[in-house]
Amino acid sequence: EVQLVESGGGLVQPGGSLKLSCAASGFTFSSSRMNWLRQAPGKGLEWVAGIKSDHGRTYADSVKGRFTISRDNAKNTVYLQMIDLKPEDTAVYYCANDAGSRGQGTQVTVSS
């Protein structure tokens, strides 16, 4: 059974930082492209960043230069380091594998 468990969300002030983690199991993590998605209140699901098995990375324009996706294949974990957070980054953040499985999400709130 595929399991993706996100953690690390919380309340942070504008300009602050957070690091999200996603622990994966039930599939071959090391050969899977992994993604971070987010859903802001009242909006649809938005792709944020992706990382391939060879660690090649891509980002949405809205987060480029502020977010960094990484992975540790030994720990079956993917990360999202977020800096210079803005109120518009407020959302539930999900990790997903390339088969479309997604975790339950972790809430990130950016507010003063």
Task: Please state the CA-atom Rg, rounded to the nearest Å.
Answer: 13 Å
Mean pLDDT: 97
The largest pleated sheet is described as: 6 strands, mixed
Structural class: mainly beta
Tell me the β content: over 45%
> What's the shape?
globular
Question: Unreliable runs, pLDDT <50, ≥5 residues?
Answer: none
Helix content range of the residues, please?
Answer: under 10%
Question: Features of this protein?
Answer:
112 residues, mainly beta, six-stranded mixed β-sheet, 0% helix
Please describe the topology of this protein.
Blueprint: E1 3-7, E2 10-12, E3 18-25, E4 34-39, E5 45-51, E6 57-59, E7 67-72, E8 77-82, E9 91-97, E10 106-110
Parallel strand pairs: 2-10
Antiparallel strand pairs: 1-3, 3-8, 4-5, 4-9, 5-6, 7-8, 9-10
Walk me through this protein's architecture:
By secondary structure, this protein is an all-beta fold. It is built from no helices and ten strands. The chain has strands spanning 3-7, 10-12, 18-25, 34-39, 45-51, 57-59, 67-72, 77-82, 91-97, 106-110. The strands form two sheets. The chain has a six-stranded mixed sheet with strand order 2-10-9-4-5-6, with no helix packed on it. A four-stranded antiparallel sheet has the order 1-3-8-7, with no helix packed on it. Strand 4 and strand 5 form a beta hairpin. It is globular. The protein starts with a strand and ends with a strand. The model has no long low-confidence stretch (mean pLDDT 97).
In brief, what are we looking at here?
0% of the residues lie in helices and 50% in strands.
